[in-house]
Design goal:
- This protein is α/β, with parallel strands linked by helices.
- The protein has 2 domains: 124 residues, NAD(P)-binding Rossmann-like Domain (Rossmann fold, 3-Layer(aba) Sandwich); 170 residues, 2-Layer Sandwich (Dihydrodipicolinate Reductase, domain 2), CATH 3.30.360.
- The chain contains 9 helices and 13 strands.
- A 7-stranded mixed β-sheet has the order 8-9-7-10-13-12-11. Strands 2-1-3-4-6-5 form a 6-stranded parallel β-sheet, with helices on both faces.
- A hairpin with a 5-residue loop joins β12 and β13.
- α1 packs across α9 and α5 packs parallel to α7.
- The longest helix is centred in the C-terminal third of the chain and has 16 residues.
- It is globular and about 65 Å long.
- The two termini are 28 Å apart.
- The model has no long low-confidence stretch (mean pLDDT 93).
Amino acid sequence: MMPTVFIDGAVGTTGLEIADRMAGRSDFRLIGLSDADRKNVAARAAIIRDADFVILCLPDDAAREAVALGEGAPTRFIDCSTAHRVADGWVYGFAEFRAGQRDAIRTAARVSNPGCYSTAFIALVAPLVEQGLLPSDHGFIVNAVSGYSGGGKDLIARMQNDAPEIGYRAYALGLEHKHLPEMQVLCGLSRSPLFAPAVVRAFRGMLVDVPLFLDPELGFADARTLHQALADHYAHEPLVAVAPVGTAPAELLVSEGDAASDCLKLYVLPSADGSQVRLIAMLDNLGKGASGAAVQNLNIMAGMDELAGLRT
């Protein structure tokens, strides 16, 4: 029978983008609740327990509640919240970041969808730390900008209506952010990165920049070795591309008119003398950073074409 999918939180930005990617597909059947039943606990429990797959697009506490409602049922979960990203019993839903992860997702009952910033940082750093090319005890600095769509309805309203003159909004100034635990744990780091995120006047899009001084005495490989390691790691991944090393683009842009994409592009940009490098990832925060990743994980878990419904 055709597997059923319930998007819990389907009216939010992530849920709407997932539904858009699922539209027109005949290999899944989307099921849902009426507006009157969306906050009816018994109705939610029934549909969660009846669905083959439930994608949670909810705040953390509501996501935990939804999982509890499905306890004991064969339902398989994909959680787009922060609630379970480093939790025991959950598989991290980033198929490309290390060997065996795709197979773990395929057989998992519970998959945590990565955060958008985390996807970029982990894609750049995790393979290099794992291969011993970057030290795991380094204090990584992460500069990042994102489109405002990742901030939820309130921020979207502020950026579009209440304060349209704001072009750049730095936040998390207390050096805490919900993505930091997964960034540290999944990269195998002994300390949390120093993370400096900001929102810019663009609906979607993201640029994550990890600058490094390449001191070989401290365990840093040279830039070309870093680039080759990333190129080899992602060589057969259709959604991840590593740009050629040695020719820096004039600029990298996050723009208001950026199209939706479920791809991720990585750059290794060394200084002329090779003593410094910027590792940069660019992605759509709503695509590979959220909804596209959820659909990719769903495809893997269901044994479908992994790229079905995605914007490549």
